[in-house]
Write a structure and sequence with these properties.
alpha/beta, 3 domains, 32% helix, disordered N terminus, binds adenosine-5'-monophosphate-propyl ester
Length: 665
């Protein structure tokens, strides 16, 4: 982060105190911070009381063998029972759990807790009929349809960890995830709706299944929801493997007696990009994860389950969809909206129409979406009655003060508090955020670690930096929803997160403490970029590029982008044979398009570079390390910084001279 940004941030002097009525009736008051600081384990034990347990724990936290934590050791619990059955048992069976809104207009479904229980139990019995047992892994590759939630909760019920793969990922990305966690069943659909048109999913599963066939991790069954009714193509159905959801699930009994699992039983694996080419399978377990997500969902959004209508716009394919669409809200017995489609189909007011229709009171989205709405203009949301909204949340990347204030003014009528929530796939739960009834918030700052969270900003030596300075964002104490390991790779878990300073979790983010000690998250300090709130690794895109036969070498940087926060920009050196074919270096629009499509095929459309520059050389230090800083200068059209450590300083002139012919599309 540049020093200019740092000093700009410190000039922010707007303050937004909580509305008086919200503060008076807030779920969490200021005393929670001290209570947690004075009795850390007692505080988390008290939060665990909001859940139903089988056996109670013997120890709140076992941290005898860091960084391998055990939370609520000795306890047993079932996540599905906590998200569904216990609400029905408490007489809330007729309460709506999910107002599901399909992308085609008028395609909606209100699912009560009692109906959710039936659907989850049927899905559980269906998975059992396909041979899924406790401990087996199930991959889920679905659009935002209710069956996705049913399947996740069915897996949780059985104790079969799920791995949800975002529907925008390619067949190769799906195959590598299915293989890494050894999933024996994949649940998918024929397709989903995107801007009014059916978009296929099943062919990607077919490719992934074919790729793994005959190997150690061959997929045994594919369970297919009929969503769009689209044609599956000539070879689109394999009777040995494929089963329709309606054939296997619909006829099942809606009764299923759930087993209580160990508190540390694996709940799910979620893959995320790291600094190497291979995605990491982040493992979350059951008891602590449910405590962390249900507490923070209740505290940060001030959830009042009987009156609030909550809406988190994240896709279930990302961690936000897991923690704050499925497990947190359902454990709390919330009523929520789940929407299948994009914000601008069939019109740009679609989200606000949904807010008005269901009377959404708590709304949680990403800065990239807010910036898009700003660009479209406030006349669009202004056409709808948004007066029900009382708390607004932001997640995924730093929210710039301009977007924050627009969000508060336009969607929150100038009075709804904005909670800027900092967390990660690895942390499982929100860790740094204002509390809407307590914190006097500053636009652009995630403010303070939540009660029970010990976060800090430190220097290279691991020492706490004084207020007014920047450094690395770290956590000193474990927290209940923390990752437990990287699936199948304990060493990588230790090296990646816990090795920089002893027993300290390093999150990969840079941050600043302002004069008051409040935290401003500045973004990644490693080779990970954040595109529309989604994490992508530079190395992963580089390996995708060099896997193309025409590419000899590639370097990728995340360049600042007005809409998406950051965008991948690639610099590639072609192989001799390809140079002979191509036009002049820097041109070759067809080739650029071919490479962009190749990245989409290897990883998914979100990873497509915004720009690809064909260059004759890459800037390297004498030891051969690519100087990404200089490439970022080029990608962001800045004056090139210090080149003295380059092995050959004329390289930058060569790259810049090729720039004029560069291609965006
Ligand atoms: O850089 C931080 C950024 O997103 C990263 C985590 O990405 P992911 O695991 O995909 O999870 C996204 C949803 C939790 C972090 O390392 N990030 C997330 N929230 C914020 C943020 N940066 C600044 N402010 C936030 N509120």
């Amino acid at each position: 982060m540049s020093s200019e940004t740092l000093s700009n941030l410190s000039h922010e002097d707007r303050r937004f105190p909580p509305p008086a009525d919200l503060a008076a009736s807030a779920n969490v008051k200021a005393d929670a911070y001290d209570a947690a600081a004075n009795d850390f384990e007692g505080f988390w034990a008290a939060q665990a009381e909001r859940l139903d347990w089988g056996q109670k724990w013997e120890r709140v936290l076992n941290w005898d063998n860091p960084p391998f934590a055990k939370w609520f050791e000795g306890a047993t619990i079932n996540a599905s029972v906590n998200c569904v059955d216990r609400h029905v048992a408490a007489g809330k069976g007729d309460k709506v759990a999910i107002h599901w809104v399909g992308e085609p207009e008028d395609d909606t479904r209100d699912i009560t807790y009692a109906q959710l229980q039936d659907e989850v139990n049927k899905a559980t019995n269906a998975l059992i009929s396909l041979g899924v047992e406790k401990g087996d892994r199930v991959a889920i590759y679905l659009p935002m349809i209710p069956e996705c939630v049913f399947t996740m909760l069915a897996c949780a019920r059985l104790g079969a960890p799920h791995t949800v793969v975002f529907g925008g990922f390619s067949a190769d990305a799906l195959a590598s995830r299915v293989e890494d966690c050894g999933a024996k069943v994949v649940v998918t659909s024929d397709g989903g709706y995107r801007r009014g048109a059916p978009s296929a999913l099943k062919p990607a599963v077919d490719d992934a299944v074919a790729k793994l066939a005959g190997g150690e991790h061959a997929v045994e069954h594919v369970l297919v929801v009929r969503r769009t009714g689209q044609d599956l193509g000539e070879n689109g159905w394999n009777d040995d493997v494929d089963k329709w959801w309606h054939d296997v699930v619909d006829g099942q009994s809606s009764e299923h007696e759930a087993e209580m699992h160990d508190s540390e039983h694996p709940l799910y694996v979620m893959y995320t990009s790291g600094t190497t080419g291979k995605p990491k399978g982040i493992l979350h377990t059951t008891g602590g994860y449910l405590v962390g997500t249900s507490y923070t969902h209740w505290a940060v959004f001030d959830l009042k389950p009987d009156t609030d209508v909550y809406w988190c716009t994240a896709d279930v394919g990302w961690v936000t969809g897991h923690s704050y669409l499925v497990y947190g809200p359902l454990a709390n017995g919330a009523t929520q909206v789940m929407y299948e489609g994009v914000p601008d189909s069939p019109h740009k007011g679609r989200w606000w129409e949904i807010v008005e229709k269901y009377g959404v009171t708590i709304f949680y989205t990403a800065p990239t979406a807010i910036r898009t709405f700003m660009k479209w203009g406030r006349e669009i949301p202004d056409k709808f009655d948004l007066s029900s909204v009382r708390v607004l949340g932001s997640v995924g990347e730093p929210i710039n003060p301009e977007a924050y204030v627009w969000y508060r003014d336009t969607i929150g009528a100038g009075k709804a508090p904005v909670v800027d929530t900092w967390w990660q796939t690895e942390t499982g739960q929100i860790l740094i955020s204002p509390l809407p009834g307590v914190t006097e918030a500053k636009p652009g700052s995630a403010m303070t670690p939540l009660p029970g969270i010990d976060a800090d900003v430190v220097n290279d030596e691991g020492e706490s930096v004084p207020d007014g300075s920047g450094g690395y964002l770290i956590l000193r104490k474990p927290w209940p929803a923390m990752l437990r390991t990287i699936w199948g790779d304990d060493e990588r878990y230790k090296d990646t997160y816990w090795s920089r300073w002893p027993d300290v979790y390093f999150a990969g983010d840079g941050a600043k403490k302002d004069e008051d000690g409040d935290v401003w998250v500045l973004g990644r300090v490693d080779d990970v970029m954040n595109v529309s709130g989604h994490r992508l690794s530079t190395t992963e895109i580089e390996s995708a590029l060099v896997s193309h036969p025409k590419v000899a070498e590639a370097a990728v940087v995340g360049a600042t982008d007005e809409m998406t926060g950051q965008a991948p920009c690639a610099f590639v050196i072609l192989r001799e044979s390809a140079i002979a074919e191509a036009d002049e270096p820097g041109e070759g629009g067809d080739l650029v398009q071919e490479l962009r499509n190749h990245v989409a095929k290897e990883i998914g459309a979100i990873a497509k570079p915004r720009q690809i520059l064909v260059v004759p050389e890459l800037p390297k230090t004498r030891s051969g390390k690519i100087m990404r800083r200089l490439l970022r200068d080029v990608a962001e059209n800045r004056e090139i910084g210090d080149v003295t450590t380059l092995a050959d300083s004329s390289v930058m002139n060569l790259i810049q001279s090729g720039m004029s012919g560069s291609s965006d599309e």
